[in-house]
Design brief:
Rossmann fold; 9 helices; 12 strands; 296 residues
Length: 296
């Protein structure tokens, strides 16, 4: 008898009976493992007062993890049918919805009807180039905050800097693995959905930053900023006069997923200064260290 279950009567050469006995033995081992796990769980809960009432074991606070939601829509703009199919299949396997476009015009027409959550944008397209499309997206108030990942065979640093300077959130060079691209998409979406510190920062000279709405303005005039530009401005304005190194700025924008160089910070700063107009002169480069927002 095994744990109260009576074994069937049979000979040793009876194959069917042997399989039955093996199954019973496996079930018994599983039950014993579950019993042991329950005992250890109860002991752990008893040893941690904070866990008795909640029924959960207390432990180190977990870092927030981003899981894609099934309704997140990714627009893939790629003129190569094979590459577009591979990208779409990889993102679909990761739980995203995907809409495919073979040229830039069809994307721009669709953006006004059904805005996606992120755009994967190839640089070389038959009717235009990805840089122009990215510039157009950033120039429209309703689309300015739309995350964009540039996808291209160009691996030159100058091209990466140009893409980031135009407002791209990330830059992926071919060849790449679908899993790497999916990880980049998750990282960009995580940054886009991260809850900022609540409140309003009055940086002086009419420059105001609303961290709840992720909006910036000078006087009554709103300033259209990309996610990276807003993140830099928010960081600098959080401690006026404090110098932030380029590495610190990169960590603030991309965390451990950063795959860009220090020059990308310079590109974003240049674009941010241009958008701020005269107030942009308050963003000061401290040679060999980083940047700060100068006190009034």
């Amino acid at each position: 008898m095994i744990h109260g279950v009576k074994a069937p009567q049979c000979g040793l050469i009876d194959l069917e009976c042997e399989v039955h006995l093996n199954f019973l033995a496996y079930s018994t081992a599983t039950l014993r493992l579950l019993e042991a796990s329950t005992i250890h769980l109860q002991a752990a809960k008893a040893a941690i007062p904070g866990a008795r009432h909640s029924g959960r074991i207390a432990g180190p606070r977990a870092q927030p993890v981003y899981f894609p939601r099934m309704h997140e829509l990714i627009a893939v703009v790629e003129d190569d049918d094979d590459i577009r199919a591979v990208v779409a299949a990889g993102l679909t396997r990761e739980g995203f919805r995907v809409r495919q476009f073979a040229d830039g015009r069809s994307l721009l027409a669709e953006l006004r009807r059904d805005r996606p959550d992120l755009v994967v944008l190839d640089v070389m397209l038959p009717d235009t180039d990805g840089f122009s499309i990215c510039r157009g997206i950033r120039g429209e108030r309703d689309l300015a905050a739309l995350p964009v990942i540039m996808l291209t065979a160009r691996a030159d640093e100058a091209d990466r800097v140009l893409g980031l300077e135009l407002g791209a959130d990330d830059y992926v060079a071919k060849p790449f693995s679908p899993k790497e691209l999916a990880a980049r998409v998750r990282a960009v979406l995580r940054r886009a959905s991260a809850a900022p510190l609540s409140g309003r920062i009055d940086a002086g000279q009419g420059l105001a930053i609303d961290t709840d709405r992720r909006e910036a303005s000078i006087g009554e005039q709103p300033i259209i900023l990309t996610q990276a530009e807003f993140g830099i401005l928010q960081l600098l304005a959080s401690r006026p006069g404090w110098v932030f190194s380029r590495e610190r700025i990169l960590d603030h924008l991309w965390g451990e997923e950063k795959t860009v160089t220090d020059r990308s910070v310079d590109a974003h700063i240049k674009h941010l200064r241009d958008k701020l107009g005269p107030a942009g002169s308050r963003i000061v480069n401290v040679r060999g260290v980083g940047y700060k927002l100068a006190l009034q």
